[in-house]
Amino acid sequence: MSIDILIPTYNRQKDLIKNIRHLNRMIIKDQLENYFRILVSDNCSNDATWTELENIRPEIQVEMHLFRQNENIGLEKNAVFLLQQATSEFVMYIGDDDYLPKNYLKYIIETINKENEVSAIVPGIEALFADGTTKIGRREKFDLKKYPAGFWTALHVAYLGHQLSGILLKRTHLESNYLKNENYRNIYPFIYFLSYNALRGPVYYAPMFKVLVTQSNSKDWNYDDSGLLTEIFKNFNILYPRDPFKRFLLCCSVLKKQGGWRLRVGKQPLLALKAVSHVWAERKTDLLTKIGVLFFVPYLYTRKVASMCKKSLWTHRNT
């Protein structure tokens, strides 16, 4: 059993080098060097990323392979490129400025050795701000949950793929199946990877391990008017090319979990209207999903108001 850690990077030399050293320490400390390799692809950075990578190589005990793109090919293509270089049974993407928690890699190895049919493992997330403070990203009521293979699991975990960092994935057929329709390639292939693996094997969701996700750095991409929902929906066209109802259910699961902030549901209704218009203008989004979005916006507003009222009532009772 082997695991390739895949790090697509662009213009983050300081964070990247810190991250590689962090991974190296974790792997060596737990004596896991026989299980892991580190693969890094520099997306034609214009800072000193490549020079720093070459300089750090001698001090890294873990097997490490470095690649450099001749031009910036975008995050998605760089991420897929790394997947194409992987040869391991499992892969794990990590953002160049995101940091795995203590004992997470050890937990992964122990889980795989104990449960032979593991298809994916998903950690929790915790936001890391520039001043060093942190904030838990998802507050779950459990530390660990095992989901059986199947569509029901895909409905529950698909949206988690947006975090990229720390998700362990069985590698076989990921790349070939994702690339079978070039028209649906998108900036969130990790949602497809996790959804696909949810259909073919058990998924472990372990929010007790929280990946630190840096919030202060600028990104080499931007959110569109729909918060990239139209990009996310493309993954379900790849997953179920001939089943619009299952695609619709998967889209609804994402809307339920993330529709509030992606559709800009809040104090400025015009932004939500603009988001809905963007979804309707996207030809690759199913009509059924577009209609669903129309119903989800008032539902999300109602849920937001109810949450605010509940919070206000709780505050009043405790003052």
Tell me about this structure.
It is a single chain. The protein is an alpha/beta fold. The protein folds into 2 domains: 3-214, Spore Coat Polysaccharide Biosynthesis Protein SpsA, Chain A, CATH 3.90.550.10; 229-317, no CATH class. Helices cover 45% and strands 17% of the residues. The chain has 11 helices and 10 strands. It has helices at residues 13-29, 49-56, 75-85, 104-114, 151-157, 174-178, 189-200, 229-239, 244-262, 269-281, 287-317, and strands at 3-9, 36-42, 64-68, 90-93, 98-99, 120-128, 134-136, 145-147, 168-170, 203-214. Strands 1, 2, 3, 4, 5, 6, 7, 8, 9 and 10 form a 10-stranded mixed sheet that branches. Strand 1, helix 1 (13-29) and strand 2 (36-42) form a beta-alpha-beta unit. Helix 5 packs antiparallel against helix 7 (189-200), helix 7 runs parallel beside helix 8 and helix 9 (244-262) crosses helix 11 (287-317). The longest helix is centred in the C-terminal third of the chain and has 31 residues, at 287-317. It is globular. The N and C termini lie far apart (56 Å). The model has no long low-confidence stretch (mean pLDDT 93).
